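One thing: can you check what follows?
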Amino acid sequence: MRYIKINFKIIAIYIIIYCLISCKKEVGEERPEFFGTWFGHTSDTYYQIEIDENSNATYKEYSLLGGGTNTHYGKARANNKVFKVGRFRSFKIYEYPHEIDTSNSQIYVPDPDMFSMNKKKATWKMGLTNFGAFYRADY
């Protein structure tokens, strides 16, 4: 009978290195520019991402074709290439959140209170692969 010798120290070292390389930090720790309510859309879907100061996030997809709503909750986390909401919803970042020039911009976002018809000129932009640009206003 053959026994397999497992070196738990080596396994632990690999796990630590993996976490240091791939683990994402909550956005509240180092990236407060993610805070707020972000809006985006494609031809058939409307998106909303809400992130509070404690990195709690809600991601919502609203189908414009009558397919209903898809919602994810969790901590907002980001590293240099990926933004995540919870454990299962991730986005590749191609443009980090940054302020935009509002003098030439004609992009407006709704008031985060969905019962309001008010709109405000977008002051921030973020780009996520496959979802396009997300915008938010300073309310």
Remarks:
- The chain has one domain: 25-136.
- The domain at 25-136 is CATH 2.40.128 (Lipocalin).
- The chain has a mean pLDDT of 82.
